[in-house]
Design brief:
The complex is a heterodimer of chains A (about 325) and B (about 400). Chain A is mainly α and about 325 residues long. Chain A has twelve helices and no strands. Chain A is globular and about 65 Å long. The N and C termini of chain A lie far apart (about 50 Å). Chain B is an alpha+beta fold and about 400 residues long. Chain B folds into two domains: about 70 residues, no CATH class; about 280 residues, Orthogonal Bundle (Cytochrome-c3 Hydrogenase, chain B). Chains A and B meet through α9 and α12 of A and α4, α5 and α7 of B.
Amino acid sequence: MMLQEVIDIVKVLVFPGFLFFSILGLLYEWIDRKFYARLQNRVGPLYTGPSGFLQPFADFVKLMAKEDVVPEGAEKPIFSAVPVFALALSLFAVLFLPVYGTRGIISFEGDIVVLMVIMTLFVVLIFLGGISSASRYSEIGSERAILQLLGYEIPLVASVIGAAAVTVKANPSLSIRGIVEAQSGLWSIFGIQALGFAIFLLAAQAELERTPFDIPEAETEIVAGWMTEYSGKKLALLRLARDVELAFLCGLGATLFLGGPQPVFPGAAGTVISTVLFVVKSIVVLLILTLLRAAMSRLRIDQMVNFAWKYLMPLSILQLSLAVLIPNLLAF
Amino acid sequence: MSTAIDIPIGPQHPALKEPINITCYVDGEQVVGAKLRMGYNHRGIEKAGEYQSYIQNLYLAERICGICGIVHSFSLAQATEDIIGKELPRRADYIRTIGLELNRVHSHLLWLGVAAHEVGFDTLFMYVWRDREAVMDLIEEVTGNRVTYALVTIGGVRRDLPQERAEKVLRVMDLLEEKVKKYKKMCIDEKTLRMRCDGVGLLRKEDAIALCAVGPTARASGVPYDVRADDPHAAYDEIPFKVVTYDTCDVTARVLVRIDETLESINIIREAIKKMPSGPIRVRLPRVVPAGEGVGRTEAPRGEVIHYVRSNNSDKPFRWKVRAPTLANFLSIPVMLTSKGDYVVNIADIPIAFASIDPCMSCTDRAIKFVDVNDGKSWVWSLSQIKRVSHGGGR
């Protein structure tokens, strides 16, 4: 009994929990930066480690050692708590992802609903962080983050619930486990879910605040938006939280639409292969997200909300209805 | 403006590479007013010029602006030659024209990259700047320097353009023409870029005329004002070219005017190399300039540059006055940044609207303004008062 508990703790702390996803997050940041740079005919990170692969790690360590300034007019408790909560929240979210096998460390019926809540909580944290920094740029950034949430949240939820529709036929379920098991034959993306995947990618781009939806932290307009006043350790934690969130959303995309880590065969070798499968699939999602980032300019907030309500919203409702209706019609 | 909060943009801000302050009055995301404050970068170049000889001043003038690498030394030489009143060898005029146009190609490409960055399209920014290196290397080969060319001297140019180098220029021009056409297509077709530029930074034709806008800013508002065509200097009288104008009056028009002008410049360079006569590249002019007044003007990449020189029969100018194009275009900025009727300016539009005039503060700043940062009051001090304050005694 004791041994089981130790294994569980190791699972949460090391693999496939906090440490694994922290490293994965930093690795994904490197892949993102490197691929983005290559798309722009640059070299990207180069000197720290082979091909600059240790650059995100070095950035993290450097920021941890830097001076930590809290603005005079800031709401100090909230301002200081936001980075910690952001990291905690994103590390909590990754526990739901199945890295090998079909279930994550936390898995229960209805867990994707909890994930949706977590993703929204993230924006609430961003809002609090920005509004408590007592800076005009941060305040505008916070307002934009909330406005943006109004645009992409419903499409995001609809695309995730749509992904759950694959379970309708055999064993209706709102859990990640059910979705992964239902994809053991054909991946969701080969079918009506292709549309859901596209919507998910756009919404994920908005959730991660990356071009064309990097509106809350638009560099040339409002400095760094809601992050403007953060420095030192707090910024390091925020960036790590961002990276883990990136790994989480890429992993979620791979799990919901690309079949996730299908268990190949039991045993240690099966675990390794299945983990590699998961990482490779989520890197595919990451590369698509990077491609989107490189190919477009930043939209204005009014244009973003317009686009989301005019196109993204109807499309996501259409995709959700089709995903639910088609299996039922076929059953007749 | 009672409900509006003011957002200071600058003097230090990521969107502005040089110090200037724009105070925008913002209601929600909408900008309802804007005020400019300059004077952070006074360098006293005009005054310094009065203590140096004309030849030395050419190199000082070159340092007025790092991007207009030839424009200021050319205009100063032109003003000085205007006083002396002697014809230049034709070949020198042609080489000067080639220098001016190479400068325009590099400056417009640089601006296109900056504009793309302002709207968050970094990929275009990186591509344009990569290809701009081709023309920078070419400038180094033709003039000897990448940034401050030191090509122009009083009475001609300092460096000839031999046949083999001219052929290299033509080769690079072919390459650039192809690239620039590609970017033009990209700017017209890329939907998100158009969404950020269409209808933004509106400067109507009547406003452009009333506020004396110059250069691409005026031409994008449909005002066909170009010193090269209106007052031909150097070899522009013998080279046919088109004055590019667009009439949508927004940032898109300014992007397209600059891209089309780059293509025109490439054609001008080709034509100049074809028509260039042989002969000497400079005449010796006296170092002491007779008393008189001279004006030099040319079309810099950003608009009309005017240099005025007054001489007093010595080798140093008595007064030297420079009007950079950005100064003329500054007046349009508050108009572009103020919502009026159907025209709505968002916070997100500020950087690109401001950048669309291709501002250059270091060229422009000639003034010092004293402002109390606490209550916003400003006043004027005489020279002796400034001296007293700077030496530590009160006013």
